Amino acid sequence: MRFVDEFRDADKAHALAAKIAALCEPGRQYKLMEVCGGHTHTIYKHGLEDYLPESITLVHGPGCPVCVIPMGRVDDAIHLASQPDVIMTSFGDMMRVPGSGGSFFDANAEGTNIRMVYSPLDSLKIARQNPDKQVVFMAIGFETTAPSTAMTMLRAAREGLKNFSVFCNHVTIIPAIKAILDSPDLRLDGFIGPGHVSTVIGCRPYEFIAAEYGKPVVVAGFEPLDILQSIYMLMVQLSQRRSEVENQYSRVVPWDGNMAALKAIGETMELRPYFEWRGLGFISHSALKVRQEYAAMDAELLFQVPGVRVADPKACQCGEVLKGVLKPWECKVFGTACTPETPIGTCMVSPEGACAAYYNFGRMNRNRVAEVSAS
Amino acid sequence: MTAGQVSHGVQGQPGWIDEALREHAQHEQAEHEQAEHEQAEHEQLDAAQEAPDAAGRRQLPLADREQQVLDRIDRARRRRPRVREERITMSHGAGGKATQTLIEAVFLDAFRNPLLEPLEDAAQLLLGGSRVALTTDSYVVKPLFFPGGDIGDLAVNGTVNDLSVSGATPLFLSAGFILEEGFPVADLNRVAESMRAAAAAAGVQIVTGDTKVVEKGKADGCYINTAGVGLLERDVNLGVAQAQPGDAIIVSGPIGDHGITIMLARGELDIEADICSDTAPLNGLVAGLLDAVPGVRAMRDATRGGVATILNEIAKAANVGVLVSEDQIPVRAEVRGASELLGIDPMYVACEGRLVAVVPGGEADRAVAALRAHPLGGQAAVIGHVRDEQPGIVQLKTSFGGTRIVDLLVGDPLPRIC
Q1: Low-confidence ranges of chain A (pLDDT < 50)
Q2: How far is A114 from chain B (nearest CA, A)?
């Protein structure tokens, strides 16, 4: 298949892997963080770690939109959905995320009407078909999905739809990366930058990582060769003692981002003073809310949202996993109390979550596999 | 749910988490002594390599600790399944882990008997000296009509196939209809006509039936249940538990056609592709295979849950490892394209006219040739083999050259595909 197979070529992967291995300085350990959950998914789905030398560890970052939603927000959403005459729409990923009393699926079994949509625009169709209901879109995601929420709001305004609103949970990536850089328990050598987010925000916002923290950043695409090449580019920078922002995904990511998308976000949403991230706690200016001008579409104003804070279960170590301090399997409840069927933490829910990716695709001990195949 | 219940979570931990953790702690306690014992042994073996951790305890090397966790997960997965949810959710019908848990924890528990226990596609009975296979299946597909078929031929073929892959010659079917008030009679005629044609094509007769009508809104147009009986004439011993290391794993054609067709036929995705459902009766194909290779160990039709689910059933039932190569698995370009766009793995997408067969390694070529000789098996291929390593686990060698696990599906992105 064109545009897919050429980025999954095993021969090219072998060649890149050899070049990466050659760049490793003896005795040095490298920790590279892939910020984006989409990368985590690709890495596990294609078995990319098989190509890396033992001295390179990939640390899975916080860029999974579902994983960073705190339990309280899920409870708030279910509370919204259980108001009379409300239809909630949500991306499929959110349906199984557990709140303190269960997930959207469980809520539906109790009588709410939460429907899965593939695009926020589908919510408008549902709103048109159900004029006597209030359709609330559960908006989640980084700058990647925020433009589509913004476009939906703009269109609803243009059409004069009165029964559509947004429960806004959009977050922004840079404050999260900064929180990780400032976290004392983590030492990283470089970042594989989030490709999809960068199609919107461009590469400039990462320059402080290279300039102030001295860490190289390579914005990467989502096919396995993209990621392998980005690791190679990071290793070249490290071997040359450079720290710059480079763009591996130039076929899609413009250096300055997508102005039209940024404008649409700016028109409809504004920064919240602070927002709670699952596992990372409160981060200031890290999330978006609906702008005053669009208050009629802000579900948080239209309805009474309890705004509950639910403490993460004590045994859940999502925060450490999201920051890359713990590998998924090092979490105390991984795979036993917390599984994709009964997830306690969000990292176990989304296919982009580090725990779910490891549980579904990677649950084998690579050293042991090597031992077995060698014997 | 009320706000009161929500705020309850702030003080303590929500009940279901408490329960999961309590269970976890019990098992951990039981394993603790064993782990300590092992660790003591380990320390004696090689104390020099291990650095004490902050607490002064000796830590096992990383790979060993990872292995310990993986072993613990393995034990957790073998525990008796229990349904935690208070109500049925859509996941229970998706054909993945939740469905399996529901079947084992509710139905198997209530009906337990040796004929049911193998949980094969059809039960094998002895009736007045004859070996008979019996199966049943319900059909709730939406939309009722889709490219390549409709709920009618699906309902006939599905039951014919469940009998066929158990090694039986399908003979007689029953048909039960649950109709929604207001359902067009013209549509019902269309469904009945395609059932007639499918039954004729498969050489079976529909000999008994039932009709119920429910109020508008209590069903979605038309649901069908079919049951079927077939005669086990051949001297074969089929079952996924029969798989042995060295066996080859074969699929009879491109996978995922039905599931992707249904998804696109719903028209919710604004994707168009030239794909049809693969719904077809497999009895002819199976007969050809069994004639050529009487030593076939197991067959399954890859419906809900797709090929991945069957591979997991093989690995678990026979306690063997399964290794398949992504490169070898036939997938149509249209199905692959749609799957890439939607982020779906074709390995989990339903087929309605494909089977997976396990045959002794030495007979793989003969089996593939026999399948390819039939019009429904033209693209049959060996996709992998059974092995000793990693019992219970299905591994995939990716086209990219890496390896990963192929686990049972948890949720289902495809609502009601059969």
Answers
A1: 372-375
A2: 12
